[in-house]
Amino acid sequence: MMIEAGGEPKPGDGVRLSHGLRGGDLAFGMPALKMHVHVQLEERQYVFPMHLDQIGIVAGEGRVFFSLRCVFEYRIRKEERRTVTLYDGAAPAEIPGSYRVVHERG
């Protein structure tokens, strides 16, 4: 199922799919899915939160998976080194120094 922006279930909310299992309904509590990405473009760096995009259900097997997304745009500069790193947890207010990647020129 596709999730509209702002319409996602909150952590702890109950989610139920009628007849999602061979013997009845598939029900689960929504987990906390806080993740963020660090984007480094040479010396410029940014942090963006990930957002729930989809809840995937494997009907009959009782399996559920989640798809998160983050959209960002940037200008491509010739020979610029670019790095995107996925982190668990909420996006920090300030970018930790440990996030910086040292790009070596070859």
**What count of structural domains?**
1
- Gross morphology is elongated
Low-confidence stretches: none
N-to-C order of helices and strands: EEEEEEE
Strand content: over 45%
Task: Provide mean pLDDT, rounded.
Answer: 89
**Sheet with the most strands: spatial strand order:** 4-3-7
Could you give the distance between the termini?
A: 45 Å
Q: Which bin fits the share of residues in helices?
A: under 10%
Largest sheet, strands/sense/barrel = 3 strands, antiparallel
Computed structural class: mainly beta
Global Rg: 18 Å
Give the number of helices.
0
What does this structure look like?
The chain has 106 residues and is mostly beta strands. The chain has one domain (14-99). The chain contains no helices and seven strands. The chain has strands at 14-21, 24-29, 35-41, 44-49, 51-58, 63-69, 82-88. The protein is elongated and about 60 Å long. It starts with 13 loop residues before the first strand and ends in an 18-residue tail after the last strand.
Map the helices and strands:
Elements: E1 14-21, E2 24-29, E3 35-41, E4 44-49, E5 51-58, E6 63-69, E7 82-88
Antiparallel strand pairs: 1-2, 3-4, 3-7, 5-6
What structural keywords apply?
106 residues; mainly beta; three-stranded antiparallel β-sheet; 46% strand; elongated
In short:
The strands form three sheets. Strands 4-3-7 form a three-stranded antiparallel β-sheet, with no helix packed on it. The protein has 106 residues and is mostly beta strands.
